[in-house]
Design brief:
Elements lengths: L1 H17 L11 E8 L6 E10 L4 E2 L6 E9 L1 E5 L5 E3 L4 E4 L8 E3 L5 E10 L11
Antiparallel strand pairs: 1-2, 2-9, 3-8, 4-7, 4-9, 5-6, 5-8
């Protein structure tokens, strides 16, 4: 597991050096590192980002026009309104499918949560929406 963390950390550094431009729809704490068309799938693109959520930050409930996969580099404690706090562990992974609402968390612990996400989404649509139409 430690080896995977080192590989992902190295990839983040490479992408940070290779991509200085940021794209539209940056949320608080999310920095887009790179974006590319998905070869063989017209109308789809891949977006690599890193997100840092500080204590007190809120990750609103939202959904994507495609798939989101992620890796928690540094975990912490988050809580949805009216529910028990949840620990997101270092090294955990996540997968959110197309058009499925997720999020709605507030960082309630003392650690900043850092995660890397890869989105494979419809090109030309917002990366995320907060309400179903």
């Amino acid at each position: 597991m430690r080896s995977m963390k080192n590989v992902l950390s190295a990839l983040v550094l490479i992408f940070l050096g290779a991509s200085a431009s940021l794209h539209a729809q940056e949320s608080a704490g999310r920095k887009e590192l790179q974006r590319a068309d998905l070869s063989g799938a017209p109308g789809m693109e891949v977006i690599l980002s890193i997100t840092e959520l500080k204590p007190g930050d809120v990750l609103p409930e939202h959904f994507h026009h495609g798939i989101e996969a992620g890796y928690i580099v540094e975990g912490g404690i988050m809580q949805q309104a009216g529910k028990a706090p949840v620990t997101f562990a270092d090294g955990a992974s996540l997968m959110n499918l197309r058009d499925i609402m997720h999020g709605g968390y507030k960082v309630v612990g003392t650690r900043t949560i850092k995660l890397i996400t890869v989105h494979v989404v419809d090109k030309g649509k917002p990366l995320y929406d907060t309400a179903k139409k």
